[in-house]
Amino acid sequence: MKRAENTNTLSAMRTMHRAVTLMERGNYGRIVNVSSGMGALNEMGSGWPAYRVSKTALNALTRIADQESSPAIKVNAVCPGWVRTDMGGPSATRSVQKGVEGIIWAATLDDDGPSGGFFRDGMPIEW
User: Fold this and answer.
1) Structural contact between residues 79 and 125, judged by C-beta atoms closer than 8 angstroms
2) Where are the beta strands (DSSP E) in the chain?
3) 74-103 per-position pLDDT tens digit
4) Side by side, which strands form the sheet with 118-120?
5) Strand partners, 123
6) By C-alpha distance, which of 78, 53, 58 is closest to 13?
7) Over the range 39-59, which residues count as b (16 or more CB within 10 Å of their CB) and which as e?
8) Are the beta carbons of 69 and 25 closer than 8 angstroms?
9) Among 34, 54, 95, 119, whose CB has the most other CB atoms within 10 angstroms?
10) What class, spelled out in words, does domain 2-124 have in CATH?
């Protein structure tokens, strides 16, 4: 549990804190927290408790960082889906390219784009 929390939540929190400080100076920025539907309360199920809780906490930090940042900084969480990586394994339903598309979308949002949301494939998903 501690390792998952440090990797998936605390590391992101430390990075966001440092990044937002720099982004505030330039009055522009995009923060994309790579989350997971497994951390959404509406999809919460059994198995992988440490991972699920750490991603739920990351989602909460996304909302908090959005509220504490200037409107010029967009802060969102993105679920890339089940991706064929070392973690996802060969049976995963998505290619790395497909998984990355939503992350790139969030990282390149226009000034009028959303902030404080949770997305998959550029579409909002429930927390």
Assistant:
1) yes
2) 29-34, 73-78, 118-120, 123-124
3) 999 999 999 999 999 999 999 999 999 999
4) 29-34, 73-78, 118-120, 123-124
5) 120
6) 58
7) bbeeeeeeeeeebbbbbbbbb
8) no
9) 54
10) alpha beta
pTM over 0.90: yes
Residues 102 and 80: their CA atoms lie apart, in Å, by 6
Look up tokens 């750490």; give the residue. 54
CA atoms of 23 and 87, how far apart (whole Å): 31
What tokens does 86 get?
A: 């070392």
Answer whether 95's CB lies under 8 Å from 84's CB. Answer: yes
Q: Are 105 and 112 in contact (CB under 8 A)?
A: no
Task: Supply the DSSP symbol for 95.
Answer: -
Enumerate the active-site residues.
51
3-class DSSP assignment, residue 73: strand
Domain locations along the chain: 2-124
